Amino acid sequence: MPEGHTVHRLARTFASLYSGQILRVSSPQGRFADGAAVLDGRRLVASEAWGKQLFLGFAPAGRSAPADVSDARVTGVTSGSDILWLRTHLGLYGAWTFAGAPDAPEVAHAIGAPRRRIGERETTAPPPPASDGSDPQVTLVSSTSDTWIVPEPRGQVRVRLLGDHAVADLTGPTACEVITAEEKTAVQARLGPDPIRDDGDVEAFVAAVGRSRVTIGQQLMDQAVVAGVGNIYRAEALFRAGVDPLRPGRDVPAAAVRAIWDDLVTLMRDGAAHGAIVTTRPADRPVRREQDPDQGSGEHRPDVDGRRRTRQNTDGAPDAVPADQAFYVYHRDGLPCRVCGTPVLIKELAGRNLFWCDTCQT
Question: In this structure, what are the phi and psi dihedrals at residue 110, rounded to the nearest 5 degrees?
Answer without folding.
Answer: -55, 115
